[in-house]
Design goal:
The complex is a heterodimer.
Chain A (H helix, E strand, L loop, with lengths): L1 H28 L4 E6 L4 E6 L4 H7 L18 E4 L16 H5 L2 E3 L9 E4 L8 E12 L4 E10 L10 E6 L9 E6 L9 E7 L5 H8 L6 E8 L10 E7 L3 H13 L7 E7 L8 H10 L3 E7 L11 E2 L2 H11 L7 E6 L2 H13 L7 E3 L4
Parallel strand pairs in A: 1-5, 12-13, 12-16, 13-14, 14-15, 16-17
Antiparallel strand pairs in A: 1-2, 3-4, 3-5, 6-7, 6-11, 7-10, 8-9, 8-11
Chain B lengths: L6 H9 L12 H7 L3 H30 L8 H23 L1 H7 L10 H12 L4 H30 L10 H16 L9
């Protein structure tokens, strides 16, 4: 018994001493003192304590850079242009930066540390991104693995966003997850609904945020959200809109379509292709079919890749890319200009881009937010 | 009872005749992976030397003043590793502050020093061979320098080999392993001059 106690004390004590030593050295070595962050050539100047990542430092100061992965360096959403010299590209940044981005000194803000005075450039609209506090008003099962979550905003109690944009949900610690995590989800509700936001959230096996939402989140729970972010929204042109959604990727498209209808922008052709495996994966079908009746230029094409016999499916079948290709050739006007709006898995997006470019839509007219 | 080994003999023996890498084959993973370029090899070699010297000294103190008095010698593996992990953490912070370029070129291999078996090997040899404190520090320093000498030598040789007409199937890891074998044989030439086992 004494041996067990002595061993426990020894290991515990030694670990504590070494941990204290690390903390002391960290305090001395990583003390970069006060540093200045200049944003957009003097538009905003922040005085902060150096040592942390640029993303964290900025968010502590109320400037929120989008980060779909919550700063793990895997989504590449938190890119900022750095105007001062902060050293070479880190190995963790390199895979997520294009060659021309590297030339322009675009860096991943979650990976670079603020060690000395730094000047950066960020899009002006990011200044309007805020932290929102809300309460879960409704959780609704859309399919067996997708939930619709409505959050009523408390503080601030209203939001302005463009249909198609996304927000980051702040997931509190639970089970073995011992720190706050942020994940990006597209807003499914229309911008006219200012006092609340809705999301479609599909359960990803092992996913930190989706597991929390599906297994732990209850109505009346408090939630924090950051945003709005994103470049995925309707462009003001006369081109036909070819929208393709997969799974919970229907959310931003639903927001865009509802917004267009409410604002009476019904003079352009909108094609919505919704890909799913079988009937049990389809949702919001009635909403879009109803929209089709009210808006003669809106066309809704749900397609099942693996319909089950009991589905008794009479609609389109096959991969969504094949259906899209078929409609390009057979149903759409070949002579009108077109734009692509995509939301779904990275694989689906890449495959759809291929089909769209083969059918005459240039890549700069195809819009998407790829949440990896 | 400490062995009767002169400090100078121990120092040179741990660099050459009993090189931790080329005679005991400990620490091979980072040795092979980081020896592709000279600057990184040099940096990692110096970092290993630093960590090895410091951890050997601390581990000697911990072993003799904590583990032996409480009869907990059997905990030496876990205790040695805890000390090594902490010192590596500290080295990582210091290197990041002092030389960002070196920090970046070492990449993942810097934290991996923690699991570099050469470091644990030296701590265990020191204990098995009953070295006193000074002998242990000299042994740690010498072994670190021996590891550093081996990795920079391999980096230099690989630079030459890269420009040599190596048969296709042997390119990369194949020729590197052959080179290491030849280096080990060359170091064997020193054996017999000094004996510290």
């Amino acid at each position: 018994m004494n041996t067990i106690l002595a061993a426990s004390f020894l290991i515990g004590g030694l670990s504590a001493v070494l941990a204290a030593l690390i903390v002391v050295v960290d305090g001395i070595v990583n003390n970069y003192g006060e540093v200045k962050i200049d944003i957009n050539n003097g538009k905003k100047e922040l005085k902060v304590n150096g040592g942390a990542s640029l993303l964290t430092t900025l968010s502590e100061q109320g400037v929120f850079i989008p980060s779909a992965c919550g700063g793990r360096g895997s989504c590449g959403a938190c890119k900022v242009k750095v105007l001062s010299d902060i050293g070479p590209i880190l190995p963790t940044e390199a895979p997520l930066l294009e060659e021309d981005e590297i030339k322009q000194n675009i860096r991943l803000s979650c990976q670079v540390k603020v060690k000395s005075d730094i000047a950066i450039e960020i899009p002006e609209e990011l200044f309007s991104a805020k932290i929102f506090k809300g309460v879960v008003e409704k959780i609704n099962d859309l399919t067996y693995d997708i939930k619709e979550v409505k959050i009523k905003l408390i503080e601030p109690n209203e939001i302005e966003f463009k249909a198609g944009q996304y927000m980051q949900l702040v997931i509190p610690p639970y089970e073995k997850i011992n720190e706050y995590t942020q994940r990006a989800y597209s807003i499914a509700s229309s911008p006219s609904q200012k006092d609340s936001v809705e999301f479609f959230i599909r359960l990803v096996p092992g996913g930190i945020a989706t597991t929390y939402v599906h297994k732990y989140l209850k109505e009346n729970d408090q939630m924090e959200l950051v945003g709005p972010f994103g470049e995925f929204y309707m462009r003001n042109t006369d081109a036909d809109m070819i929208c393709v959604a997969g799974g919970s990727g229907l959310a931003p498209i639903k927001s865009i379509v509802a917004d267009m209808f409410e604002r009476k922008i019904t003079n352009r052709n909108v094609w919505l292709f919704f890909g799913a495996r079988s009937l049990k994966d389809l949702y919001y079908v009635d909403f879009f079919q109803d929209m089709e009746k009210k808006w003669d230029r809106f066309h809704f094409v749900p397609a099942l890749s693996e319909p089950e016999p009991q589905d008794n499916w009479k609609g389109e079948t096959g991969l969504i890319t094949d259906v899209l290709g078929k409609y390009f050739k057979e149903k759409m006007d070949q002579n009108t200009p077109k734009e692509g709006y995509l939301c779904g898995s990275p694989g689906m997006i890449n495959a759809c881009i291929k089909v769209m470019t083969e059918n005459g839509i240039s890549e700069d007219k195809i819009y998407y937010d790829k949440f990896a | 009872m400490s062995p009767d080994v002169g400090l100078i003999s121990l120092f040179f023996a741990s660099i050459f005749t009993s090189n931790i890498l080329l005679s005991n084959f400990l620490g091979m993973c980072s040795f092979i992976s980081v020896s592709k370029d000279f600057t990184s090899s040099n940096g990692l070699g110096l970092a290993v030397t630093f960590v090895m010297t410091i951890t050997t000294a601390i581990n000697w103190l911990v072993y003799h003043y904590l583990l032996i008095p409480f009869g907990l010698e059997y905990l030496r593996y876990i205790v040695f590793i805890i000390v090594i992990a902490a010192i590596v953490q500290i080295s990582e912070m210091v290197i990041e502050r002092m030389s960002t370029n070196l920090y970046m070129s070492l990449g993942i291999f810097l934290p991996l020093i923690t699991v570099n078996c050469a470091i644990l090997g030296v701590a265990l040899f020191m204990q098995i061979r009953n070295y006193n404190f000074l002998q242990s520090v000299i042994f740690g320093l010498g072994s670190g320098l021996g590891w550093w000498l081996a990795i920079v030598s391999l980096a230099a040789i690989r630079k030459k080999v890269d420009k040599s007409p190596v048969p296709g199937p042997l390119k990369g890891p194949g020729i590197t392993l052959i080179t290491i074998g030849l280096m080990a044989m060359a170091f064997m030439g020193f054996s017999g001059m000094l004996n510290v086992q």
